[in-house]
Amino acid sequence: MWFALTGTPGTGKTSVAKELRERGRDVVDLNKVVKDNDFVTGRDKERDTDIVDLDKVCRFLEAEFGDEKGLVLEGHWAHKLQVERAIVLRCDPRVLASRLKARGYSKAKVEENCEAELVDVILVESVEALGEGQVSEIDTTKKGTRAVTDAVERVLNGDFNNYKVGSVDWSGQLLKGRRS
Q1: Cα–Cα distance for residue pair 116/36, rounded to 1 Å
Q2: CATH number of the domain enclosing 92
Q3: Whether pLDDT at 149 is above 70
Q4: What is the number of other CB atoms lying within 10 angstroms of the CB of residue 33?
Q5: Number of separate domains in the chain
Q6: What is the average pLDDT value for the chain, to the nearest integer?
Q7: N or C of the chain: less Cβ packing under 10 Å?
Q8: Could you say which DSSP state residue 38 is in?
Q9: Distance in angstroms (rounded) separating the CA atoms of residues 57 and 162
Q10: Distance (Å, whole) CA 56 – CA 66
Q11: What is the CA radius of gyration of the chain?
């Protein structure tokens, strides 16, 4: 079984992936795979992002890792690959904005990513690709890397019930300021 460790940029994927590696898990950094193998096919100038050939990435992963069990694919589009389960890291959009600003993201990119988190874009894509029963979500907002990694480990070890889809909800933020 291959797992996707996915989520909006800034939710903690890279930090958790590093901790998982330190704990002995096999984790693939998809951004590195794309960069090292020239799997970028173009640039979306409007969104300021690369366009990746997902078919080439899949063929590469299959050739490199075959049917290796427990492999974790880390990246904000990992759920779009041939995985059996997705772990979606979530973060309160207000906290996410601070994290992305600290990374030097443009105002437009901060807004785009916070909006995506607010309306569950990656969660919805994961559920559409895999089915609700194959997706777990973990709120990283008030947790350190070790605690989030512990939660991810629990999911990797089969604890799906405590991290069901729908356990994280930012929709209340949409209504703030609109109430009379």
Answers
A1: 28
A2: 3.40.50.300
A3: yes
A4: 18
A5: 1
A6: 93
A7: C
A8: T
A9: 31
A10: 15
A11: 16
Identify whether the C-beta of residue 53 lies closer than 8 Å to the C-beta of residue 103.
no
Q: In terms of residue numbers, what domain contains 77?
A: 3-162
| First CA to last CA distance, the chain | 49
Q: Is 175 part of any domain?
A: no
How far apart (Å, rounded) are the C-alpha atoms in residues 37 and 71? 19
Q: Which pLDDT score, from 0 to 100, does residue 50 have?
A: 84
Instruction: Look at the alpha carbons of 77, 25, 103, 166 in this order and tell me if their dihedral is positive or negative.
Output: positive
| β-bridge pairing 85-90 and 40-44 | unpaired
- Other Cβ atoms less than 10 A from the Cβ of 152: the count is 27
Other CB atoms within 10 Å distance of the CB of residue 154? 15
Report the DSSP beta bridge partners of residue 52: 40
Q: How many CA atoms lie within 13 A of 152 on its CB side?
A: 36
Q: Residue 51: pLDDT band by 50, 70, 90 thresholds? A: confident
In a domain, 177, yes or no: no
Q: Which pTM does this prediction carry?
A: 0.92
Asked if the structure places residue 136 within a domain, the reply is yes
The region that residue 48 occupies, defined by phi over 0 for left and psi between -120 and 50 for alpha, beta otherwise, is: left
* DSSP one-letter code for 63: H
Neighbours of 83 (CB within 10 A): 23
Those residues whose C-beta lies under 8 Å from the C-beta of residue 32, and which sit 6 or more positions away, are: none
SS3 state at 5: strand
